[in-house]
Write a structure and sequence with these properties.
single chain, binds pyridoxal-5'-phosphate, 3-stranded mixed sheet, globular, alpha/beta, 7-stranded mixed sheet
């Protein structure tokens, strides 16, 4: 037997996948045959989409589509090179300027994906004698970024400010200390304790980078994100965001002071050694950005749905942790039951995402339920009723969860 194949077949995740497939519960890589909207078609079947990151529901907005089409007509389909060399067009520069102004930063850089932003920024900001302090639930792209860095990495417990302070105390005072956190945690939906992080950063002379992948378009004035929600944008040194969620496209950005951006343009390897984002993706993000800024009623509706769903989940006794955003984790705490619930809901016309080991610890498995500004209350009620019945059936509803969080 081929040694490589043998080794790969032994990997725990492949083993789990084989078992789940054998039980007819495999939920991944289902092809969507329609637009990404609140209702999608999968295998010819209409299902309600409660697993999307398109929080503002803009992926099929006529103005966003039109902008992408016009960009293809004018610039073609691909950039055929890196931003550094032949891959910059005026659309990239205009979008960078707009983002920087919006966030009150000197400058911004547009990358081809959000993953590449974190990878290319976190890996090159700090040196051998410096420190990266990271929340244990930070996104994988942040973790990949600091894996590539030569700095000392200090993990702190999720949103635990005593733990962060203990780690800061370990650092040599006159070395760079970069604290990197998700603004909204992507699976759990809770918000970083930014006021405390800012206080500790001041006390220990540290710098802060916030990933706004799930905050942009959701929190803050006109969707500026978590940093703005707390009125702390000026105190955050680097603000990262993606176009793949609220902005209905693909790509990402980092916004910061001029010296930081000047450094990154010349040192960030995923920016330099990868082709730049396509004209269509850049133009779509730009159009979606304008809608986010000019149509605040979308964000308002998203929050009405969110508040309603959070209250109903808590009242039914679902365990939803500390979320306070449109990302709602339904903790099942069992791999197999999580796959079962996903399949059961799909059969009843509801698409949700299972999050299982090894992505999370096996007793932290959950169903990730997420909302879009384009959902109607009728769609939401339909889903909530079905979910309540399903969670009841597998025995995970407990009225005490609601009390525990008050
Ligand atoms: C918190 C967070 N950061 C970064 C990313 C990567 O963004 P993208 O999908 O645009 O590459 C994601 C995507 O899932 C995310 O959730």
């Amino acid at each position: 037997m081929n040694l490589l194949v043998e080794k790969l077949l032994e990997s725990p995740i492949c083993e789990t996948a084989r078992q789940v497939k054998a039980n007819g519960l495999y939920p991944y890589f289902k092809a969507i045959e329609s637009e990404q909207d609140t209702e999608v078609i999968i295998s010819g079947k209409k299902v309600l989409m409660f697993g999307s990151n398109a929080y503002l529901g803009l992926t099929n907005h006529p103005k966003v589509k039109e902008a992408a089409i016009e960009a293809v007509k004018k610039y073609g389909t691909g950039m055929a090179g890196s931003r550094y060399l032949n891959g910059t067009i005026d659309l990239h520069l205009a979008l960078e300027k707009k983002i920087a102004q919006f966030l009150g930063k000197d400058d911004a850089m547009v990358y081809s994906t959000g993953f590449q932003v974190n990878l290319g920024v976190v890996s090159c900001m700090t040196g051998r004698e410096d420190y990266i302090l990271w929340d244990e639930l930070d996104h994988a792209s942040i973790i990949e970024g600091h894996r590539l860095s030569y700095s000392t990495k200090l993990k702190f417990r999720h949103n635990d400010m005593d733990s962060l302070e203990r780690q800061l105390q370990k650092c040599v005072p006159d070395k760079v200390k970069l604290i990197v956190v998700d603004g909204v945690f992507s699976m759990e939906g809770d918000i970083a304790n930014l006021p405390e992080i800012v206080r500790l950063a001041r006390k220990y002379n540290a710098n802060i980078m916030v990933d706004e992948a799930h905050g942009l378009g959701v929190l803050g004035r006109q969707g500026r994100g978590v940093c703005d929600h707390f009125g702390l944008l000026p105190q955050v040194d680097l603000v990262m965001g993606t176009f793949s969620k609220s902005l209905a496209s693909i790509g990402g950005f980092i916004a910061s002071s001029q010296p930081v951006i000047d450094y990154l343009r010349l040192n960030s390897r995923s920016y330099i050694f990868s082709a730049s984002s396509t004209p269509a993706a850049t133009a779509a993000a730009n159009a979606a950005f304008d809608i986010m800024v000019n149509e605040p009623e979308r964000i308002e509706h998203l929050w009405k749905l969110t508040d309603y769903a959070l209250a109903r989940f808590r009242n039914m006794g679902a365990e939803i942790g500390h979320t306070s955003t449109p990302i709602i984790p339904l903790f099942i705490r069992d791999n197999e039951k999580t796959f079962y619930v996903t399949k059961e809901l799909f059969d009843q016309g509801i698409f949700v995402n299972p999050v299982v080991a090894p992505a999370v610890a096996s007793d932290d498995t959950l169903i990730r339920f997420s909302l879009m500004a384009t959902h109607s209350f009728r769609q939401l009620d339909y889903a909530l009723d079905k979910i309540e019945k399903c969670l009841y059936k597998i025995g995970v509803l407990n009225p005490q969860y609601a009390e525990m969080l008050v």
